[in-house]
Amino acid sequence: MDIRGGSGSSGRGPPGPSPQHQSNASYVESFDFPFCEEVSKYEKLAKIGQGTFGEVFKAKDKKNKNKIVALKKVLMDNEKEGFPITALREIRILQLLNNENIVNLIEICRSKASSFNKHKSTFYLVFDFAEHDLAGLLSNFNVSFNLGEIKKVIQQLLNGLFYIHSNKIIHRDMKAANVLITKKGVLKLADFGLARAISINNKGQPNRYTNRVVTLWYRPPELLLGERNYGSAVDLWGAGCVMAEMWTRSPIMQGNTEQHQLTLIAQLCGAITPDVWPGVDKLELYNKMELPKASKRRVKERLKPYVKDAYACDLIDRLLILDPSKRINADEALNHDFFWTDPMPCSLEGMLSNHVQSMFEYLAPRRSGAHGGGGGGQQGGAQAQAQAQQRSKQGHNDGYKDMVY
Ligand SMILES: Nc1ncnc2c1ncn2[C@@H]1O[C@H](COP(=O)(O)OP(=O)(O)OP(=O)(O)O)[C@@H](O)[C@H]1O
Ligand SMILES: [Mg+2]
Description:
alpha+beta; Phosphorylase Kinase, domain 1; Transferase(Phosphotransferase), domain 1; 2 domains; five-stranded antiparallel beta sheet; 12 helices; 10 strands; about 10% strand; binds adenosine-5'-triphosphate; binds magnesium ion
């Protein structure tokens, strides 16, 4: 897709190189973008999301009323240099991926430049619509998943991760709000706004990716300790947090700051030491953070009251392994006995048919303080703290106080 527009001489491009004969504004207005239709072909129905990078709307195709889509607006406000690189990266990755458990990008649309928008087009990513996101479903206590249904959710989640990791893509923003579920019960991993390709061998040099990724509550210990040469294991930590949340119904480690998040991790997963994680002491922030030295690993013990199934506890335990090189990968996780013992994974369609209303994090009153992801993908501690305070003011943690340290 070329979002810069046409060459100018064809019928579709701007009508010849004659801006001196036109006002600047009308030149821009007559500019045509091949392969990039106008967003006015869709009718917006409701706002369903407000992310760090823009708003998301439910919309229907005016020509084909049965076609419902999600429009994700590309935030251009701070862009002096044209189309934002983060959105370009998201589009390029989504165009590469094609799997039942990955959200499908249909096309990119634009609004027409006019005097109303200061002659600037707005761009939208157009996706197949999913009726719910997992954060919305979990925040509604009328929605109850049985064990077979939970297995189906986690199996599809791991299947999506297995697919992207096989394609050398890491998601870097795993959380319940980025997991969509259709009314037929098909899970779609969404929000590739922070995703990137991983280079396997950089001439023997370690990679230097940014570690300011992943919403704080789902951020693995290696990122919190400053690792920049990380890999797909970061997504499996997030998958472990999401899996536990299927029972606890609320994020299991809600830190206010990076330091607090590490403390919560050590309290649940045990002391972070070179004994359990050889080489951890070489990480940049290891000596700069305060790490509890004597805490015992208590993943199974703490989760047992919620997660009664022993196989489930065991899989969560393996997903939440501190040392990323020992953490279970998506392929091994899909082979875990959890998915191959009774009750077997079963369709969610019947259960979801009892709920005709869409459920999204954005629309859920309980999670309303957590927009942008309670801890935010790239935000600092202060903002996260403010959000956490707002959440606790709202009495957000109902039924779940045990897990909040
Ligand atoms: N295809 C879709 N169908 C239904 N809802 C969607 C779809 N895509 C996104 N949403 C909803 O919009 C929300 C925000 O979308 P997304 O996560 O892609 O945007 P974002 O700006 O990157 O968000 P954030 O910064 O909060 O992670 C999602 O959490 C989900 O509730
Ligand atoms: Mg998101």
